[in-house]
Amino acid sequence: MTRSIDNQPHAHSASTQHIVILGAGAIGCYLGAWLHTTAAQVSLLGRPRVAERIRQHGLTASDLNQRKIKWSASEISFSTDPDVLKTADLIVVTVKSADSPEAAKLIAQHAKSSALVLSFQNGVGNAMVLQHDLPGMTVLSGMVPFNVATLPEGRLHCATEGQLCAEDHSALQAWLPLFNACGLPIQLHTNFEQIQWGKLILNLNNSVNALSDMPLKAQLSDRAYRQCLALLIEETIQILKWAGIQPAKISKAPPALLPFLMRAPNFIFRRLAAGMLKMDENARSSMWEDLQLQRKTEVDYINGAVINLAHSLAQTAPLNSRMVSLVKKAEAGEYRPKDGHQLLSDLLRPQTSQ
Ligand SMILES: NC(=O)c1ccc[n+]([C@@H]2O[C@H](COP(=O)([O-])OP(=O)(O)OC[C@H]3O[C@@H](n4cnc5c(N)ncnc54)[C@H](OP(=O)(O)O)[C@@H]3O)[C@@H](O)[C@H]2O)c1
Question: In angstroms, what is the span from residue 28 Cα to ligand 1's centroid?
């Protein structure tokens, strides 16, 4: 038995589809909590520490529009055993980018080849990594535009707005009604590379936010941090131009306008970017969370992707390279929050090598 959104129990039909969320963290648990309110059977595959947290508190997912769902501990199907993948019809991959090869290995070992694999990870190469190791399976790219914060007592709060996106593929059609039913509709796109780079451009703020040690809204309200972000975005857009990639517009402003918007004085920025600043006061980037928990960040898959693209064109990306070095230092234990001006001068400091 599962429970619907209004907490009324409903039985699974014989044809119930099984969704396994591989990587039960912030995004995985959030998506799982909402999907669980549909007719699908949902299982979370994750780590023992998350299982323990869920055993104590269950999961509560909420969003900016006051929607809220409680998934009680006794009803949650949480597994630390990848064998749960055996009966999956849809595998939603929500591990961090560095864990994609391991996720692919688990899927290859345990899942049936007819299962659809949908990556809801940041970065531009995760679906490719998964597909490479899962040659007989359909692997699709997805994109989560919103931010989910992990709060105490099993609470997951979606602190910004946006709609899920995925590659337009016939294999996904059958799943769309379920995502619609739980209020997480998926927009389909044919050129997903553009979507991924559009999102990556926004994710360039993750490292700025992580090093600021400030909530996103306060950090974005500080012009010096925005100037750092403007530099990173400008460099990325130039490299994308050389590569012939046109990043999609993911936020309210087109990518090419973002550097101008970011450099605007605070009072202009607040007016022009009111939509962008519509977020929970306490929202932070997951990269900030990784540094706090002394975990490796995804910087190699975000700023690092820009550097790799530049190198593939025999170019360099000095500002993104500098940012990767700063985050790596913080990962290595030299984490000292930087104010916007310090970060700006660190970014602009001449480099000896890349
Ligand atoms: N958080 C956000 O607001 C947000 C928004 C948009 C997109 N994203 C993207 O979504 C992806 C997931 O981010 P997240 O913030 O949800 O990460 P997260 O909270 O770290 O969740 C990932 C979870 O997967 C677990 N995991 C890793 N490998 C596993 C395996 N082989 N088997 C079972 N569990 C495994 C991790 O455990 P360990 O920590 O022990 O490895 C972690 O608990 C990332 O690509 C991120 O960039 C995040």
Answer: 7
